[in-house]
Amino acid sequence: MRFLLCLSVLFAMLTSVATAADPILKKGDRLAIVGDSITEQKLYSKYIETYLLTCYPELEIQCFQFGWSGERAPGFAARMENDLIPWKPTVVTTCYGMNDGSYRAYDDRIGKAYEDGMRRIVDRMKMAGATVVVGSPGVVDSFTWRRNDADFDQVYNDNLERLGQIAQTLAKENGFPHADVFGAMKQAMISAKAELGEEYPVAGGDGVHPGRNGHLVMAYAFLKAMGLDGNIGTVTVDIESGKSEASGGHKVISSQNGSVELESTRYPFCFSGNEKDPNGTRSILPHSPFNQDLNRFTLTVTNLSSDQADVTFGTTTKTFTKEQLSAGVNLAAEFIDNPFVAPFNRVLGAVGQKQASETSMIKGFITNFRQLRGPLADDPEVQAALATIRRKMMETNDAAYAKAKAAVEPVRYTLVIKPKS
Predict the structure, then answer these.
(1) Is the dihedral of CA 37, 38, 39, 42 positive or negative?
(2) Cα distance between residue 214 and residue 330, in whole Å
(3) What distance in Å separates the CA atoms of residue 219 and residue 48, rounded to the nearest whole number?
């Protein structure tokens, strides 16, 4: 297997994908998620928006997805003044390069065209006062993507990596964060294929457009670059006294004999599929530090007299040692099926409906306003009519955001800790 590495090296690599970043999100920020057809798949963008709504509801971040299939960086640079600027973003994520590489070996003309387009985007957003999370492109899959010969995936991934380095340089020059989407996906692909087989796709069945597994890794790279700390909350249970406490959007309703009833206004991120399904998000978790870095909902148990205890969270019971419980157990990672799954999926569904309408709004209507430049650009009636249409569409989007936000309702559930003899 071409990508086979020893597991110790893999996990060392995984932990180094995204270095610690300073938080860039402020309460009430407007986050624009920009990119090509991979963005227009509305998966990593949906995960980012749902994560911010459920895991960090106090930030009240409003998102808008601007993906456009087949687009390159210069293409968005040409439409950003009309399509994006009037929305007044304060933070923008970019994910270009897959098409910019022209699906062939890298040369300087490819790099220059990409850099020129990306520089125009970054400069204009900077002028508008927005922070840009400059993302690299992702990867092509080592098994499902083939062009000229059996090794062309390596040739094109080299191209994409070089474009990612240009993106990183632009980010550094402007003091903006860089999301290493390429590095995160490549390392997840190496690790996942080593365990699940070369045929397990991380960049999708066509080798370019990832399934839910690859999109979760993309969301990880962007969220990590935003500097989010990943502390979803902590529940502490003192078995000896029977007292419990919770923090970070969670409160104890009652506590006795190791049974703790809680109410949470903040959710852990939840996952879909099984351990081998690339069309779900669960299968990629052992190969990405998503839970470790971004999704820590910690249970700590003190004064446990026995060596082990059973923990029941929802309908699942697992056994942990005294040492594990004393150090803290990540409930989000250990209990994939938990009481938050159904509420989380309702929010995910509302976000999906919202983002689908955003694609229609931009590609079907707003981008066409550019055609009314020329002789009608100075006609006040025409411009007033366009302003009214844009405002009405944005009001519709604001209502969809409010609906998704309102879907994050408090969740009541019980944790049971039962010492084992």
Answers:
(1) positive
(2) 23
(3) 6
Q: To 10 degrees, the CA torsion angle through 234, 235, 237, 243?
A: 110
pLDDT in tens, 332-378: 999 999 999 999 999 999 999 999 999 999 999 999 998 877 677 77
DSSP state for residue 366 in the 8-state scheme: G
Q: What is the pLDDT of residues 15-30, one digit of tens each?
A: 333 344 689 999 999 9
Between helix 341-364 and helix 44-55 the angle, nearest 10°, is: 130
User: Distance between CA atoms of 49 and 3, rounded to whole angstroms?
Assistant: 32
Q: Which two tokens stand for residue 278?
A: 């690339």
Nearest alpha carbon to residue 271 among 209, 345, 331, 200: 345
3 state DSSP class of 298: strand
Q: How far apart are CA 247 and CA 233, in angstroms?
A: 6
Instruction: List the 316-321 sheet strands across, edge first.
Output: 250-256, 259-264, 411-420, 308-313, 316-321
Q: Which residues of 376-388 are buried (b: 16+ CB within 10 A; e: fewer)?
A: eeeeeeeeeebee
- At 220-263, the pLDDT tens digits run 999 999 999 999 999 999 999 999 999 999 999 999 999 999 99
Output the DSSP codes for 37-58.
HHHHT-SHHHHHHHHHHHH-GG
Start-to-end CA span in the chain (Å)? 47
| Residue reference for tokens 């903006």 | 176
Confidence tier at 9 by pLDDT (50, 70, 90) = very low
Write down the pLDDT at residue 378.
Answer: 77
The answer to whether the beta carbons of residues 177 and 171 sit under 8 Å apart is: yes
Contact 127, 89 (CB under 8 A): no
H or E segment and range at residue 319: strand 316-321
Tell me the CA distances in angstroms from 20 to 187, 223, 228, 332, one per residue in order. 18, 11, 9, 21
Q: Give the integer Cα–Cα distance in Å for 54 and 58.
A: 9
Say what the pTM is: 0.94
How many helices (H) does the chain have, and how many strands (E)?
A: 13, 14
